[in-house]
Design brief:
Number of domains of chain A: 3
Radius of gyration of chain A: 33 Å
Helix content of chain B: 25-40%
Number of strands of chain A: 12
Strand order of the largest sheet of chain B: 2-1-3-4-5
Strand order of the largest sheet of chain A: 2-1-3-4-5
CATH architecture of the largest domain in chain A: 2-Layer Sandwich
Oligomer: heterodimer
CATH class of the largest domain in chain A: Alpha Beta
CATH superfamily of the largest domain in chain A: Histidine kinase-like ATPase, C-terminal domain
Largest sheet of chain A: 5 strands, parallel
Shape of chain A: elongated
Radius of gyration of chain B: 14 Å
Number of strands of chain B: 5
Distance between the termini of chain B: 17 Å
């Protein structure tokens, strides 16, 4: 039912007085509504469940059951139905109580046909507005969700194809290109890789924020994660002539975590360290623990981060200016790291001294398995 | 001289097809292109390629799996190696990717973009 045109709103009246039921039915059917009536409370609840109602009038004072209870059940079970109480004794107190329990309005007895029609009209307007706003909200949420999917496919596809073209260009041109043309291809590829990383990181964050990031947390041996991360980054360190060293004194310590995202956490931090560490430098990874926590420290001998920049490094798109503009990252790597650490109830701290190096300390809660 | 081995490439991105075709031709293969799943399945029947490379996301995000299923139940597709291409990292975290209950088997999954040396290396290995 998208609007009132051509739709006959469905109304139920629950009242023990037959004369009231008849009066209401006549008044409302005259206005084109579909009207159902019952003098029995439980029967009213049954009808509400089966009849796809828009609106229900409930008499508060009936001998067989309490109208207040009906209001309570209906507002909990079928929050879409607009509820109006009919109060025989025009008591503001009971009307207020009913409205607290979820009624939208009240109609004091005795009332005229015009009065019930006016109350009905207003309640239905409220109902249709609510339906419309619910629909819009759902539509907005659906669009937000599909936007991520859209971006993931529509942005990635052309990017991947352009990268593939550059790869092809290198293969088919081989030695026919001059060195400066080769350099340009090389630069293009680096910038494309940066854009590719940006899209991937952005998607990671979007998924964490919209909740579709489903963590597969389970007991894991942290050393295995570190080994995988180190293995992944070793070729890069070798190319940049940086020594990558690990010293792990307790190889069996376990934590609860999501393996894949933790590998990304470590590769992000180590990858960052390679960007700011000069050839001949060193990245040291140590793992220690006490009774409660496991600590992973990743220290480099790089250029360091100025003290005034340190508080901002986990902010999206914040970058510490490096010497080489081409080593720029996506600006989202550390934001991602922080979010994943938060999701693991972990803690990440960073200390740095310009010209000496930077040290990241990650703390995880130890897992003791009985 | 041996006849060139035939590679069938199935992807709905024309540019990606062209880029990959040129790499494979440089590697000495005869390359055939199909721009959607149906054309790919038909061409596999009529051409009897030695290997097929299939993109996972085409008209739908899992069209590649449909193509692989159809190929695997056909006479040609049963025998030849199949490579699945994907722009998403299926092993990575937080992919909303939900694979069908029964995944048809491919011989290899490669991620786009593919390094030319790797593509030629893997295709060569699978055809050996």
């Amino acid at each position: 039912m998208d609007d009132k045109a051509g739709y006959s709103a469905r109304i139920l009246i629950i009242d023990d007085e037959e004369s009231i039921l008849d009066g209401c039915r006549q008044a409302l059917e005259k206005s084109g509504y579909t009207v159902m009536t019952t003098s029995d409370g439980p029967d009213g609840i049954r009808l509400s469940r089966s009849e796809k109602l828009d609106l229900a009038f409930v008499d508060l004072k009936m001998p067989s059951c309490s109208g207040m209870d009906i209001i309570e059940v209906l507002s909990k079970e079928m929050p879409g139905i607009v509820l109006i109480v009919i109060t025989g004794y025009a008591s503001i107190v009971s009307a207020v109580e009913a409205m607290k329990k979820g009624a939208y309005d009240y109609l004091p007895k005795p009332f005229s046909p015009d009065q019930i029609r006016a109350v009905t009209k207003r309640a239905l307007e409220h109902r249709f507005l609510k339906i419309e706003s619910d629909r819009l909200r759902e539509e907005k949420e659906r669009m937000e969700r599909s936007f991520i999917t859209f971006v993931s496919h529509e942005m990635r596809s052309p990017l991947v194809t352009i990268m593939q073209y550059f790869e092809t260009l290198k293969v088919i041109s081989e030695n026919s290109l001059e060195q400066n043309a080769k350099d340009i291809i090389d630069r293009c590829e680096k910038r494309l890789q940066g854009l590719h990383d940006l899209v991937e990181h952005w998607l990671d964050l979007a998924r964490i924020e919209d909740g579709s990031f489903s963590e597969a947390k389970m007991p894991i041996v942290l050393t295995k994660i570190l080994d995988r991360s180190i293995e992944e980054l070793t070729p890069l360190c070798q190319r940049r002539e940086i020594t990558l060293e690990a010293s792990i004194n307790e190889p069996s310590a376990k934590i609860m975590g999501d393996q894949e995202s933790l590998v990304r956490v470590f590769t992000n931090i180590i990858g960052n360290a390679t960007k700011y560490t000069p050839p001949g430098g060193k990245i040291t990874i140590t793992m220690t623990q006490d009774d409660y926590y496991v600590y992973v420290t990743i220290a480099d001998t790089g250029s360091g981060i100025p003290a005034d920049k340190l508080p901002f490094i986990f902010e999206p798109f914040f970058r510490v200016k490096g010497k080489d503009e081409r080593q720029k990252g996506s600006g989202l790597g550390l934001t991602f790291v922080k979010k994943i650490m938060d999701a693991h109830n972990g803690k990440i701290e960073v200390t740095s001294q310009e010209g000496v190096g930077t040290r990241f300390i990650l703390r995880f809660t130890r897992l003791y398995e009985l | 001289m041996d006849a060139k081995k035939k590679v069938l490439l199935i992807d709905d991105d024309k540019d990606f097809l062209l880029a990959t075709k040129l790499i494979l031709e440089k590697g000495g293969y005869e390359v055939f292109l199909a721009e959607d799943g149906k054309a790919g399945v038909d061409m596999a029947k009529s051409l009897s390629p030695d290997i097929a490379i299939i993109d996972m996301m085409m008209e739908t995000w899992s069209e590649g799996f449909n193509v692989v299923s159809k190929l695997r139940t056909s006479d040609t597709g049963k025998k030849i190696p199949l490579i699945m291409l994907s722009a998403v990292d299926l092993q990575g975290p937080y992919q909303s990717f939900e694979p069908p209950d029964e995944l048809p088997t491919v011989d290899l999954v490669l991620h786009k973009p593919i390094k030319a040396v790797e593509l030629l290396k893997f295709v060569g290995q699978l055809l050996r």
